[in-house]
Amino acid sequence: MYVILVANAWLLAAVFARQAPDWLSLFCPAVGSVFCAVRMRSWLRARNTDPTLDRIQATLVNTGRFSAGLIVAQGGWACALYPYGDAATRSFLFFYIATTTLAVMYCLAHMRLAAIRLAIIANVTLFILCLVDETATHLAAVVSLLVDSIGGIGVLTSTYRDFSKTVNARAEEKRRAKEQELLLRMIDNMPVAVMTVEPKSYIINYANQMSKALIRSIEHLLPIRADDLIGTSIDVFHRSPAHQRGILADPNNLPHNARIRLGNEVLDLKISAITATDGHYMAPMLTWALVTKEVEAENRIRYLAHFDALTELPNRITFRRELEERLATPGNRVGLLYVDLDGFKLVNDTRGHQIGDALLQQVAARLKMVCNGPAVTLTRLGGDEFAVLLPHNSRQQAMVLADLIVAALGAPFDLDYDRTIQIGASVGIALAPEHGEEPDILLSRADMALYAAKEAGRGTSRLFSPELEKRVQERVRLEEELRSALASRDGLFVFYQPIVDLSSGRVTSREALARWHHPQQGWISPGRFVPVAEQCGLVDRLGEFILNQACRSAAQWVDEAHVAVNVSAMQLGKGTLVDSVSAALAASGLPAERLEIEVTETALLSDEHRGIQDLLLLRDMGVRVSLDDFGTGYSSLAHLRTFAFDKIKIDGSFVRDALERPECAAVVRAIADLGKRLGVRIVAEGVETEDQLALVRAEGCREVQGYIYGRPAPSDEDAALVAELDSRR
Questions:
Q1: ∠ Cα 267 273 276 (to 5°)
Q2: Which residues form the signal peptide (predicted)?
Q3: Is 382 contained in some domain?
């Protein structure tokens, strides 16, 4: 376009060179040529670049504006030359404008608006010149240019549409190419292994980086290398390629999931269909992952769901399913043994969970040796509880196996810690169908039998019987009635037994003891209801009742004797005892130094550290602390070293047998001597006769408690009510 404009301008200048002044014939075309040269230079420099869309649009706009301005300038130049020409040169000027206009219009074929502006400017210029010189030739030139311009604009419009379509198509193609490149890059960098396959040859034609990395990790299991993956048939991944090809051949089979095992490795494969926009099937796409660790974790979880991790025995879930299946089999006779370890909790609490776990593993090993018969299932229910299912061929068979279990677990255990541990086991036996045909019923009755074995002294077995069920039901009723009595305080009393100083004969303190009068059964022994309270979680409420009642009563005693209150193992070390004692003292007004808290060695064994912490806090309050039933525990001397007790009470069993058994008398003497050396007061419990009193006095005991000085009796405020209750018997 610029060449045409410059060439035609200089031709016109040459025609008017002798007629027009130099500034018109030389200076004007020279200036126009310079502008065209600058534009042409910019155009030539931009040809070898890859311009952006914004740059292209800016260039087109500038070109349109420049061409319009240049045409206006040339039109003005032509109008300025026109008066200097003769008829011939003026005709050439009309010819110049017409040819230049048409030529430049076609050069601007891809810039429709610029071409239209050019045609309008050129036609207006010729029309103005025609008005100056109204010759037929000039008028014909104007009409011809107008017709040619209209036709040219029509042709240019059609060309512009085609050009726009081409440009848009190329832009869309470029956009799609970028999208495909971005998508391919995303797939290539995905953390999921992706491959595509030729649909007919089943040759791998694409594999992303994750696929190659995954193949590289298992190259030792495959006949190919990761670098050779492209171009390889997918048959290398399958033992039965024909089956896999059959799946890929039919897109209706997709998506398809498969798990492939290669040696010790596991691959998860998913085959999906790649479809065109019209839904036509193009090729299969494979996504896959190495899931060996996940499968191992799944298998481990599945194992742990049905087996105990510590002992590797079937767990409660497996036991329940096995029991239900056996009971559901018509005519099947089943024996169920409930096994509970005796003394395990004490070992676990005092020696630590590591020792406890090692002990459980040895227990499981012994049980496996004993319970090795056909169709015998041994399970760990949890904690220190085990269960055995066996074919119930005879009652004697189940009882013999139970005795073997008791004997096996009663033998000492040698652990890898240079320690020998002695525990035991109690076994409850229930048989189907005699004792029940439903799982829950049979389990309940085996549990009742186990409870009976525990009551019988542990280290034994018991077979369920209706009498056992009756006893358990009575115990349940007793628990409900005790719970009701604690809620209403109806029938519950605190009795007091005096403790006497032998040197002065004065009552120094009284021990508070719980008593329960049942509406139908009368007085119920503490030996019956206290264990029930401990087993069903009522001991805290019972202990708090005794503590509050004892503090209120002691605050009214004229002799200002101390009051001793027993604390069970379940109350000690929980973090609530100190608050309960503080509240009871505050409510009653009893001075802290008049309250004595009695704890047994067994209570300290459950959690010695926390228990001692409670005792130290009580000591800081001014409360006295006594060690009760001394001599019957597991580590008496260790407790004396850990905590400085104010008083030690010798268990009554030693006092009662001291006259007949010299070794018991020696124990009494040793404890009394120990108390003297430690500066601790010694109390002899269970003194009932004058001979026993003389013995403990001679052995050096300073205080005595027992029937010889008085049985437990109610407080003054309860004395009348207790007498009335006794008179009803």
A1: 150
A2: none
A3: yes
